[in-house]
Amino acid sequence: MNSRLLNRLAISLIVACAVVMVGTLAALLGYILYQGVSQISWSFLTSDSSAFQAGGGIKNQLWNSFYILFITMLLTVPLGTAGGIYLAEYAKQTRFTAFIRSCVEVLASLPSIVVGMFGLLVFVNYFNWEYSILSGAVALTVFNLPVIVRVTENALCSVSEEQRAAGLALGMTQWHTIKKVFLPAAFPGILTGVILCAGRVFGESAALLFTAGLSSPNLDFTNWNPLSANSPLNLFRSAETLSVHIWSVNSVGIIPDAKEVAAGAAAVLVISVLTFNLVARLLGRIVEKKMTGK
């Protein structure tokens, strides 16, 4: 077989795999949106869920999902980015740092159910935080922190050494070189990792079953006192998220319109993740242009 024919076969195989992947993804998204978009209404988004009667909404679950996402990323991004900068720029190549990298790889590959059980034992029971937003957010921080560390380290290591040498040759300190040269150049890669982690957090259910709980109080959006039991900002209340609500309605729900509620909630979940990704990438490009001056 000559090289040209082999090249065409390889290209055809790659294109076929890409078409199958894109087609499968489009079919799944299309099916979810087709089943659920018709169930979405203003009342569905702004009314409390119902345990027995038809016509319930997802107001509390939607807020809980975004709130846990915000708290988790607030904890994960600074810690993970700092850890990645340390491993890429400051840590010496020793057995200890190699051991740290191995631990990070292992933690990044843990199943979410294992992280959920760990959160149940440590945060819910040992620290006595009970089923709460704080327990869920910290458990998801443990779940996503290794990913941010590895993504940040790899993004910084991909920056050419010529840029480092140029910064140091101009008399810049190591931290100033990292801040002004390396981080702007590595920002697209870091942003991609943050977006992927945010999508995992928003759609996570297994870990939150054991940490955030399967119920949520009817929130009073006129009461923003963090110490109030039904305040949206209370970190120590149980918080059923949108993905957990979908699982709960499909598995143990007894409401007459369980399929419709689950379909509508799934469509909202997909649309929210897609919207978040698009907005994050747009903001990332704006920030990247400002940081690089281009």
Automatic annotation (TrEMBL):
It is a multi-pass membrane protein. GO terms for molecular function: phosphate transmembrane transporter activity. PROSITE patterns: ABC_TM1. One of its GO terms (biological process) is phosphate ion transmembrane transport. Belongs to the binding-protein-dependent transport system permease family. CysTW subfamily. InterPro entries: MetI-like (IPR000515), MetI-like_sf (IPR035906), Phosphate_PstA (IPR005672). This is Phosphate transport system permease protein PstA.
